[in-house]
Task: inverse folding
C-alpha cells in the first residue's frame, strides 16, 4: 500500500525577511516529500510563520494560531517564526494551541521537526542564531519575477525601541560569492527584480568576523553591488532598509553608472528631533539627516526616498513631534510610513519614563501620514512630465492584469521608484481586444507605458503601442 503524502499549508506573517524564511520552510518541506496546498482545509498540518516585531504583529500571529485551532481542532499546528523564537521557553507551557514551537535559528531543521510533530510528539526547537538562513527556494511568495534576497541576518545597531537583536541576534553577513550565486540563479530563471534585504544593508560586511579578502577602499556594500553590476542582462536591483547613521555614500556613484542598480533608498529616520534621536540610541542629528538626503539628491537628482517615523516614543514632547513634522516636510521623501511606539520586552525603551499616551501617539501618527500624503502626490506629479511638458515614459513590471467592459482592460504594475507592497502603483490601461497587447501585458512582464496623471498614490498610464515585453 502506497504511503499517503502529508500536505501542509503555510500561513505567512510579518516582513519581507520573514517571507524569505517562509519560502525556505516551504522549500525544505517539499524536498522532504511533503506537499504544499493552496487551501488550509486540504492540509494535514499548518505552519504559522509568526512576526514578533511589534505588539500589533504579535497579536495578529497569535490570533491566527487561536483561530486555526478553533477551526481545525484535529490538525497539527506548528507555530514558527520570530515570535516562536523570542518566546520559545514561555510557549513550552503557555501555548497549548500549538503542537510544536519552531524558531527561526536554523530553518534547515524543519523537516525533522515536522516528523516528530506528526508522530504526536509536542516539540519545541529554537536553536541559537548563527549564520544567515538561506537555501535554494523552490517557491516565490512575491509577485512574479520579483524576489527578495537576504544578504544579512540580525542587527547590531541596538536602536532603543527595536527587538530585532533579541530575536534574530547580532549582525551576520552572507559572503558576496553566495549572494552573487543566488542572484545568478534567479536571473537564469527569468527573475527581473532583485530586492536586497537585511535589517540594515549599510552594515553589510562590517562585522569583525566577516572576510572580504584584501583591504579595500570601498564599503563592503559597494563591493557587493560592484560584483552584481558586472553581471550581464536586464534587471533591477533594489536596496531596502539602510540605517541613516552609517549610509555608505560611496555607493551613489556606482548607482549613477549603472541604471539597473535603482536609485531607490529606504532610510528609516524614525524621528527629526535631536533629543529623541539620541534617546533612540542613534548617533546623528536632524541636520545631518537633511544633509544626507541633500547629498543623495545631489548625485542622483531623480532618487526616490522612502522613510518611516515612530510616533509617541517615550519623552517625545509636542515640540519634539513638531520638529519631526518639520523634518518630514523638509526632506520631502517620496514615500513614508508612520507607526505608533510599541513597548517591546527587553528593549531599553520599554523601561523609559515619560511615556506618551496612546491617543496622542495615534494623533501624531495621523498628522504625519496626512502631511506625507500631500508630499507624495506632489512628488508623483513631477514624475508625469518632463521640462518640455511631454508625458514621460517608464518601464513597468506588471503584477496583476484585470479585464473590464467593452474591451477595455487594465493592469497593476510598478516603476523603478515603487517598491513592492509598500508604495503606490502604475495603473496601465490597454485595449483588451488587442491580441498583441494581451500577449505583452502579463504578470512578470516589463512593458513600456506613458504616464498620464496621478490618482492618490498611483499613476494612471497607457501602454505604449510599440512596447516590447521583457521577461
Result:
Amino acid at each position: 500500500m502506497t504511503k499517503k503524502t502529508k500536505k501542509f499549508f503555510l500561513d505567512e506573517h510579518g516582513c519581507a525577511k520573514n517571507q524569505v524564511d517562509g519560502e525556505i520552510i516551504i522549500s525544505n518541506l517539499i524536498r522532504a516529500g511533503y506537499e504544499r496546498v493552496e487551501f488550509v482545509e486540504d492540509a494535514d498540518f499548518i505552519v504559522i510563520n509568526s512576526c514578533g516585531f511589534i505588539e500589533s504583529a504579535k497579536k495578529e500571529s497569535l490570533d491566527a494560531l487561536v483561530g486555526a485551532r478553533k477551526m481545525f481542532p484535529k490538525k497539527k499546528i506548528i507555530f514558527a517564526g520570530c515570535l516562536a523564537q523570542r518566546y520559545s521557553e514561555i510557549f513550552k507551557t503557555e501555548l497549548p494551541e500549538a503542537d510544536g514551537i519552531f524558531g527561526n535559528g536554523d530553518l534547515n531543521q524543519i523537516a525533522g521537526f515536522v516528523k516528530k510533530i506528526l508522530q504526536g510528539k509536542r516539540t519545541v526547537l529554537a536553536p541559537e542564531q548563527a549564520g544567515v538562513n538561506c537555501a535554494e527556494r523552490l517557491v516565490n511568495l512575491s509577485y512574479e519575477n520579483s524576489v527578495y534576497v537576504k544578504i544579512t541576518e540580525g542587527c547590531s545597531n541596538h536602536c532603543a525601541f527595536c527587538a530585532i537583536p533579541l530575536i534574530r541576534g547580532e549582525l551576520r553577513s552572507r559572503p558576496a560569492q553566495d549572494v552573487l550565486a543566488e542572484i545568478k540563479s534567479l536571473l537564469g530563471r527569468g527573475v527581473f527584480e532583485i530586492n536586497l534585504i537585511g535589517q540594515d544593508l549599510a552594515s553589510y560586511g562590517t562585522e569583525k568576523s566577516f572576510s572580504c579578502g584584501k583591504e579595500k577602499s570601498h564599503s563592503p556594500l559597494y563591493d557587493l553591488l560592484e560584483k552584481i553590476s558586472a553581471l550581464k542582462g536586464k534587471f533591477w536591483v533594489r536596496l531596502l532598509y539602510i540605517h541613516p547613521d552609517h549610509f555608505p555614500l560611496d555607493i551613489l556613484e556606482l548607482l549613477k553608472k549603472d541604471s539597473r542598480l535603482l536609485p531607490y533608498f529606504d532610510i528609516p529616520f524614525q524621528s527629526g528631533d535631536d533629543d529623541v534621536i539620541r534617546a533612540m540610541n542613534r548617533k546623528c542629528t536632524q541636520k545631518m539627516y537633511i544633509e544626507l538626503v541633500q547629498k543623495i539628491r545631489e548625485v542622483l537628482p531623480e532618487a526616490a526616498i522612502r522613510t518611516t517615523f515612530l510616533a509617541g516614543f517615550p519623552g517625545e514632547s509636542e515640540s519634539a513631534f513638531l520638529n519631526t513634522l518639520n523634518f518630514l516636510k523638509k526632506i520631502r521623501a517620496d514615500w513614508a510610513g508612520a507607526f505608533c511606539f510599541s513597548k517591546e520586552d527587553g528593549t531599553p525603551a520599554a523601561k523609559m519614563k515619560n511615556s506618551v499616551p496612546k491617543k496622542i501617539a495615534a494623533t501624531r501618527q495621523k498628522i504625519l501620514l496626512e502631511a506625507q500624503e500631500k508630499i507624495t502626490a506632489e512628488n508623483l506629479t513631477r514624475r508625469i512630465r518632463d521640462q518640455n511638458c511631454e508625458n514621460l515614459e517608464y518601464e513597468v513590471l506588471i503584477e496583476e492584469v484585470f479585464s473590464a467592459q467593452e474591451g477595455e482592460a487594465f493592469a497593476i504594475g510598478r516603476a523603478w521608484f515603487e517598491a513592492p507592497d509598500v508604495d503606490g502603483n502604475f495603473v496601465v490601461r490597454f485595449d483588451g481586444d488587442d491580441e498583441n497587447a494581451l500577449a505583452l501585458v502579463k504578470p512578470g512582464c516589463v512593458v513600456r507605458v506613458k504616464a498620464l496623471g496621478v490618482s492618490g498614490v498611483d499613476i494612471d498610464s497607457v501602454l505604449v503601442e510599440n512596447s516590447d515585453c521583457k521577461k
